[in-house]
Amino acid sequence: MVSGYVNNHNNPDAYTNVMQGQVLLNGSQVPKIIWNQIKILIISNKDEFDIERDMLVTETLPKLQQYFLTQGIYVYFIDCNLNWNFDLSKNPYHILRYMKELKDAYQTSTGHFLLTFVGNKYGQIVLPIELSTIDFHNIKNSASDLGKDIKLLEEWYLLDDKLSPPMYKLKDPDENFSTIPSRSISTYDINSCENQEWNEAYFNLVDLFLSVLNEKSNMKSMHDIQLLSYVEMLFNYSIKLSPSGSMCILRQLDGLNEKSKGNESYIDLLPGGRLDKIRQEKLKRFRESIINKFSITN
């Protein structure tokens, strides 16, 4: 029962409270309904699972929402690749943001909080954001010994002596190329040029890191530089938060190779169309680790 009269002429304060949802019941405010939520991040390599992700958002999600709303639970998905014109894994600062998003989903979701799609492609390597001074100089010297151009390494990794100990930090591409994260018709030409420039820098840096780590795999100081894909990084992070909160769909397309038509989105290739054996080996180990981790938790 609402205290007072609902007639605004007799009791304007009570009427205002009712209209604002501040109803009083026996002198106490009616408690707010607490809605539970299931918040799920969806991660995959860009363009590899477009059909599956589209069906999740357009067909599966509405049905889940309709069912769970009757249980007082709101369900929603966060698709990490939705509406992005470029591969977010090429900027490690985006991955940090999604790690925070993933942690928030873990803390607020009443159920699962991550859905990972893994197929025949390992995906782009995430560059390290920070390098110790020892690692930086070891990589620089080793790259020089291998005949690699170290100008990009020196250009993109700058010493931050305000940190303790001092570290070399990767410049944020979004700050260096202002139009990449906010493409519009008016900045299309500039965006295309900046995107191409960063892509070239990114691929050269990845090639440098992979070459050094493969040639100098016995160098103890660089064992912490893993050079993983963003899919594996976020999946591993979710497992640390809660193994039971993660889901993974493994898909294997048989017969897919570097000669398959339109294979760029489904398999790891080097410039020129050759199979990237390093990333394919990383994919093999990643898939094995997924099976092992879920076998242990189950």
Short structural summary:
This protein is α/β, with parallel strands linked by helices and 298 residues long.
Molecular structure report:
It is a single chain. It is built from 9 helices and 9 strands. Mean pLDDT is 83; it is low at 1-10. The longest helix has 28 residues, at 188-215. Helices cover 43% and strands 13% of the residues. It has a 4-stranded parallel β-sheet with strand order 4-3-5-9. The termini are far apart. It folds into 3 domains: 1-32, no CATH class; 36-122 and 230-297, no CATH class; 130-222, no CATH class.
Q: What's the helix and strand layout?
A:
Blueprint: H1 12-19, E1 24-25, E2 28-29, E3 36-43, H2 50-69, E4 73-79, H3 92-108, E5 114-118, E6 130-132, H4 133-145, H5 151-156, E7 157-160, E8 167-170, H6 173-176, H7 188-215, H8 230-241, E9 246-250, H9 277-297
Parallel strand pairs: 3-4, 3-5, 5-9
Antiparallel strand pairs: 1-2, 6-8, 7-8
